[in-house]
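wait is this the right file?? whatever heres the structure
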């Protein structure tokens, strides 16, 4: 079994704090002392605010959970103590996947998670997090901040009395861990794979069987052959889960999650009733969280990919061009079905896809042209 890893956290400890906790919602009201809504600038009076930040991650989860703790610290420092935020891991106050409702109803003030968890509430929410063969982190940031993406996201969330800020990005993920070779699209036939979201729908359409297994159950399921494959995040988090000890092949790239945006969602009424200085501080700290987390993912993933390559008996390889092309055409059909059935998805994807084409055309002459040259040096 796996012993202590990383920052002194064993795999067992790491995954036992499941994404799906069971703490009762009833405990939240007492624990959450919220701001009570004075309008407009209020710096003079220095009314103090004590807010609650729920997260969909286990407590202190590497990068994103740690980032939520840092976010709270930054807000407190920048506001000189005017706003204090207490952070809770998934399941500590409410189950992870009830964060949306808790913040929407005002039971909690804010939450950190990923918008594609909420597609059951709003199918178009998927486009603000990760789309198979969608945009990378740099391009998602450009769409959000400068290309109209964030306005569309807030329009969708406003129906739930929520507002939101991008606050984190994993960068390009890995395609996942497999116990059989994937040489062609036909190798997905009969494949039981843990892969949530739109990527999972693509695997289903390719003849596989996609499951949305909670994080805590993946290792055991893969080890026992309940599943043949799983995606998770990238080398850093995957290593901590121990997948390199039980899977034979580690494939790139994460075609299904090329630049997932993580979210800070806030109860809209409460946010709008904050003094303007605190609104500005939250916005600034969300930007900081966004940049900090992408930098952490990029750094740690590069370190841990090397560890996996050097320490583990795993073949690290890339999916073939033909396999990726087939996954791409299936993706187009899956998205076409979604946009045909949901007007909001159609509106959001129209913006998303136009922006992706625009920046991809530019990247031919910028990022790609640079990589093409650099790789030959
Ligand atoms: Ca993933």
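ok assuming it is, sequence goes like this
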């Amino acid at each position: 079994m796996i012993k202590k890893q990383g920052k002194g956290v064993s795999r067992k400890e790491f995954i036992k704090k499941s994404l799906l906790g069971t703490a009762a919602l009833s405990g939240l009201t007492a624990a959450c002392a919220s701001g009570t809504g004075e309008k407009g600038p209020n710096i003079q009076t220095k009314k103090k605010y004590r807010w609650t930040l729920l997260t969909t991650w286990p407590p202190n989860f590497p990068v994103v959970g740690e980032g939520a703790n840092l976010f709270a610290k930054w807000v407190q420092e920048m506001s000189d103590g005017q706003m204090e935020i207490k952070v809770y891991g998934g399941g500590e106050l409410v189950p992870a996947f009830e964060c949306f409702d808790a913040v929407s109803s005002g039971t909690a003030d804010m939450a950190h998670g990923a918008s594609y968890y909420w597609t059951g509430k709003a199918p178009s929410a998927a486009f603000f997090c990760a789309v198979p063969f969608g945009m990378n982190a740099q391009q998602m940031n450009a769409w959000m901040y400068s290309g109209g993406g964030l306005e569309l996201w807030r329009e969708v969330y406003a129906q739930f009395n929520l507002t939101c800020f991008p606050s984190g990005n994993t960068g390009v993920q890995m395609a996942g861990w497999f116990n059989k070779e994937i040489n062609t699209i036909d190798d997905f036939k009969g494949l039981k794979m843990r892969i949530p979201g739109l990527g999972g729908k693509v695997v289903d359409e390719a003849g596989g069987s996609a499951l949305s297994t909670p994080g805590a159950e993946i290792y055991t399921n893969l080890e026992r052959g309940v599943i043949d494959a799983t995606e998770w995040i990238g080398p850093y988090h995957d290593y901590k889960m121990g997948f390199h000890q039980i899977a034979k092949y580690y494939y790139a790239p994460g075609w299904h999650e090329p630049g997932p945006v993580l979210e800070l969602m806030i109860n809209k009424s409460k946010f709008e009733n904050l003094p303007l200085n605190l609104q500005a501080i939250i916005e600034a700290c969300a930007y900081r969280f966004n940049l900090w987390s992408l930098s952490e993912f990029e750094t740690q993933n590069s370190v841990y990919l090397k560890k996996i390559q050097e320490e583990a008996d795993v073949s690290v390889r890339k999916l073939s061009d033909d396999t990726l092309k087939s996954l791409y055409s299936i993706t187009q059909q899956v998205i076409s079905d979604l946009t045909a059935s949901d007007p909001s998805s159609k509106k959001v994807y129209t913006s998303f896809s136009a922006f992706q084409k625009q920046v991809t055309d530019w990247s031919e002459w910028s990022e790609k042209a640079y990589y093409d040259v650099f790789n030959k040096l």
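The longest strand covers residues 162-169. so i think its the right one actually
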